[in-house]
Design brief:
The protein is mainly alpha-helical and 348 residues long. Helix content is 75%, strand content 0%. Among the domains are: 97 residues; 80 residues, Tetratricopeptide repeat domain (Serine Threonine Protein Phosphatase 5, Tetratricopeptide repeat, Alpha Horseshoe), CATH 1.25.40. It starts with 7 loop residues before the first helix and ends in an 11-residue tail after the last helix. The relative contact order is 0.04.
């Protein structure tokens, strides 16, 4: 996503020449600005953020250093400081739609969808949103659990840019969540038409096939996704855990262990991966490993009722009755506390 469309050229060169060179401090500031831009373009966002902050401190509001500092912080996923910097910039440039759109993105990443939507509305009153902007609006509605509006804005995003793979992906996920499987398939296929070996899209096609009761085709899709992502810079645990789950559901539990182990290796802080691996080790009698994995799941997510329930089952198998009762009681308390909780059932 392009977080900033403001040209540094306009800000720097529409200021009279003497303003930059009229004093030693401003001359130094300009030198730092050029260095900051060089670091930014080279991808050293930490150094760039520090230099842009120095430029702004030396000569406040004379360049767009704050905007680039915020963009550097966004690249570093430091959203709270980016929020602060952007608000400082907006106070000085109230009609900067670039800063407002970026702030809307940051607020989404901070989990503040209402504030994000209000900021996007303010930005859209100044300039038309891009497909990426509308994508984040859709994701705000996902955070608000308002899938009809999420789908509406994500559909608008792909209508503006039908090659936007991220927008198609989130639209497909929204369709899938609402059980609109044909529409979800169309969205993920649109990604594969643009990128024929897109592992994320293929993995989600596997989920659709599994939901449709086609386990063999689903397993093939998961295996394709695993093969396609092997050369990627970032390898996801999702096709591994999905394949492992599917094999376990088909009573091929020994075969399920290897992909589940890989999922845990890729996502060591994912409680769900640890829980599913623990459940399946319990089923094949590897109780010590099951204990380790289920304890780790409850450590990572202490309020996960299902993980506590599964740990209780393990303790029951181990004849540790007091511990089993404590885990079952904890699971029941968490379930009753959760709004709209569903009855607990054994994870497959």
């Amino acid at each position: 996503m392009s977080f900033c469309r403001t040209s540094a050229f306009l800000v720097r060169y529409l200021v009279p020449f003497c303003c930059f060179w009229g004093s030693p401090s401003l001359a130094q500031s300009n030198s730092d600005y050029d260095r900051a831009l060089a670091e930014f373009r080279a991808g050293d966002y930490s150094a760039a953020a520090d230099l842009f902050a120095r430029v702004e401190a030396a000569s406040p509001a004379s360049t767009d250093a704050l905007l680039y500092e915020a963009k550097s912080l966004v690249h570093l996923e430091k959203y709270a400081p980016a929020d602060t910097v952007l608000r400082g910039y907006v106070k000085l440039h109230r009609n900067s739609s670039d800063a407002l759109y970026m702030l809307g993105f940051v607020l989404n990443r901070e989990g503040r969808p209402d504030d994000s939507l209000a900021t996007y509305t303010q930005a859209a009153a100044i300039s038309q949103p891009t497909a990426d902007d509308l994508k984040i609006v859709g994701l705000d509605y996902v955070l608000l659990d308002d899938y009809p509006d999420a789908i509406k804005w994500l559909e608008k995003a792909v209508s503006l840019d039908n090659k936007n793979k991220d927008a198609w992906y989130y639209l497909g996920r929204a369709y899938y969540t609402k059980a609109r499987l044909a529409d979800a398939r169309r969205a993920f296929q649109a990604i594969l038409d643009l990128d024929p070996q897109n592992a994320r899209a293929e993995n989600n096609l596997g989920l659709i096939l599994e939901t449709e009761g086609k386990p063999a085709e689903a397993a093939e899709a998961y295996r394709k996704a695993i093969a396609w992502q092997e050369q990627a810079a970032q390898v996801s645990e999702q096709p591994y855990v999905n394949l492992g789950n599917l094999l376990a559901e088909q009573d091929h539990i020994p075969d399920a262990i290897a992909p589940l182990e890989k999922a845990v290796a890729l996502a060591p802080n994912n409680a769900y991966c640890h829980m599913i691996l623990g459940v399946n080790h319990r089923k094949v009698g590897n109780l010590d490993i099951a204990r380790r994995e289920l304890l780790r799941a409850t450590e990572l997510e202490p309020d996960n009722a299902v993980a506590h329930y599964q740990l209780g089952r393990l303790y029951k198998d181990l004849h540790e009755i007091d511990r089993a009762k404590a885990e079952f009681d904890r699971a029941e308390a968490l379930q009753s506390r959760a709004a709209g909780a569903h009855p607990l059932s054994e994870a497959h």
